[in-house]
Write a structure and sequence with these properties.
The protein is α+β, with helices and mostly antiparallel strands and 168 residues long. It has one domain. It has 5 helices and 7 strands, in the order ββαβββββαααα. The strands form 2 sheets. The protein has a 5-stranded antiparallel β-sheet, covered by helices on one side. A two-stranded antiparallel sheet has the order 1-2.
């Protein structure tokens, strides 16, 4: 811990834990860590705030994970996903979800690898959601029937077949 000149104490261990968590998540997700910045106290009403960003872009999807930490506040995670031409517009055109974890960054770091798997799961759901309403763009895609059948066999437990009720 150190003093910042305004009489406030900066938790350097907390800052190091946050940077470690962002780096660990980026490594586990197979990408480089993006921007990390801190807002240090500069007055009686201010507070420390740390922001880390990780970009995961592939297969036409643009994904951004933002981590925000403040002393005494839950760790906040913002997941934003855009697809196709949506990537060039503002985030409102995609899917965004906020998560607030009640544990401190220091408590989460030992489980960082598990958190990375949850991040992948959340982005997988958002990838499916962001394409809703774009069926007309998907009709031009040509996927061989054999490839669809192979996928259905590999995901058999995840696929449910809906058969509409027929009236007698």
């Amino acid at each position: 811990m150190t003093f910042d000149g305004t009489g406030k104490t900066i938790d350097l261990q907390g800052v190091a834990a946050f940077a470690s968590l962002v780096e660990l998540l980026a490594q586990e997700l197979g990408v480089a860590a993006g921007r990390m910045q801190g807002q240090l106290p500069n007055g009686p009403d201010s507070f420390n705030q740390l922001l880390g960003e990780i970009d995961l872009n592939s297969q036409g999807f643009s994904r951004k994970l933002s981590l925000m930490a403040k002393p005494g506040a839950p760790l906040a995670l913002r997941f934003a996903t855009k697809w196709g031409t949506e990537r060039n517009s503002n985030v409102a055109g995609g899917v965004t979800a906020d998560y607030f974890l009640s544990a401190t960054v220091e408590q989460i770091v030992p489980q960082g690898r598990a958190l990375a798997r949850y991040v992948e799961d959340i982005f997988a759901v958002q990838d499916r959601m962001v394409t809703l309403g774009y069926g007309n763009k998907l009709t031009g895609i040509n996927v061989p029937t054999s490839q669809l059948e192979a996928f259905e066999r590999s995901e058999e437990s995840m696929i449910s077949t809906h058969v509409p009720k027929t009236e007698n």
